[in-house]
Amino acid sequence: MPSLAPNGTLPPVAALMKAAITHRLPLHEVSDELNCQIDTFVEVMGQLPDFIDGHHHVHQLPGIRDQVIEAAKSRFGASSPWLRACNERPNVILKRAVSIGRALAIGWYGAAFRRRAWNADLRVNIGFSGVYDFSNCIPYYTLFDRFTDHLLPGALVMCHPGRVDDELRALDSLTDQREIELEYFLSPLFAALLEQKNLRLGRLEHAAQSIT
Predict the structure, then answer these.
(1) pTM of the entire predicted model
(2) What letter would DSSP give residue 97?
(3) Domain locations along the chain
(4) Do residues 180 and 139 make contact, with C-beta atoms less than 8 angstroms apart?
(5) Which pLDDT tens digit goes with each residue over 82-96?
């Protein structure tokens, strides 16, 4: 992407958002890059991806979202991938009381993305939770308890569990918190929460509901 990512370096998220909002993105470059990433996935994994989203939720931004939806329609045929819509009902965000401003900001473009995806007959999650500031000021088990309040069937709770190494530290600012999340999901606390709230992990199911 010679205009958007000269020397192979993507712009900061704030700069990308500004270009998207002001309709200054080179959308042909975005489309080419997206299709190259899908091609690479197929080459390595031997199949099309089941799920598509974007780092820092950039797949929802104006212009980019249209390229994502077009690729999902043209490349996947009848077997639509799941697309991540990052908006939640504002009243529920307020009730959960976790990173309210951040959750509302991330979800600002999610409603439009979800509507466009549904109108294109693509599969998309119904609700969205899991936004927080990664500071660990509040124990993760407490946060996850709030994340799982007021969930709709087919909801997606974002999480980032994983092991951290020097390569990741050089690429991403989200590091140690990944291991904290992983420890929680491997602990009896997580299983107990699911039982207490009568929640079940499973594959997303395509449920037609009114857009909120």
Answers:
(1) 0.86
(2) T
(3) 6-196
(4) no
(5) 999 999 999 999 999
